């Protein structure tokens, strides 16, 4: 895509990867609307040349209001990125984990679908018989392809986003709306905090923008750091890597490293 002239809405962009990409689209010359719940950041974001809009992807009314505001002020919107996401460790031996699982699915899966549904009619109307260049970018995760057992629902939710994206791409083929999937590895954001292997946020942002600028836009935006996750099954490393990642289960209360390995 031409990253220098887009009108972009990023749902979930008041911090982390979303904000990093918003700043990079803006620096490249695009107009960027950033959505989020953290209204206390809106003045700072506006000072940076970004356009803040309040949105809670778990609330249908909030998504509708955000959609209406974005399209009223930016009727030429051509790119929607569903960045909002959450995830926490869960102990599947303890049924109280269900609340965390429910929240994760509500944000990562249903929130993604809700935002896509809100903007798809507008993007299709721009399609002009397949001659437009509108884009939907979903955000899955390397964990969706190579599970991290400490965060089971997060991985499941991102696998769901991948499958949904594949179906969305097939259904929108020929409409002028392209569909791409951003597949981050661990990145040094609050969600990836504590991971010594997390990729620096600025390095990740730079690599993503280089990939997005390719023509045609790749259907999956895969930085080098996520290739081991994406292709683990193909490369025959899946079982070994899941076993390694299962050692993190020792972080759960009452677990030891040995019990974490046996749980893999």
**Strand arrangement in the largest pleated sheet:** 3-2-1-4-5-6-7
Mean pLDDT: 93
Number of strands: 7
The helical percent reads 40-55%
Main attributes?
seven-stranded parallel β-sheet, 12% strand, alpha/beta, 264 residues
Write the layout of secondary structure elements.
Blueprint (H helix, E strand, L loop, with lengths): L6 E5 L4 H13 L2 E6 L5 H6 L3 E4 L5 H14 L5 E4 L15 H28 L8 E6 L12 H21 L4 E6 L18 H12 L7 E2 L5 H4 L1 H4 L2 H9 L10 H6 L2
Parallel strand pairs: 1-2, 1-4, 2-3, 4-5, 5-6, 6-7
Helix pairs in contact: 1-6, 3-4, 4-5
Question: How would you sum up this structure, described in words?
Answer:
- The chain has 264 residues and is an alpha/beta fold.
- The chain contains ten helices and seven strands.
- The chain has a seven-stranded parallel beta sheet with strand order 3-2-1-4-5-6-7, sandwiched between helices.
- Strand 1, helix 1 and strand 2 form a beta-alpha-beta unit.
- Helix 1 crosses helix 6 and helix 3 runs parallel beside helix 4.
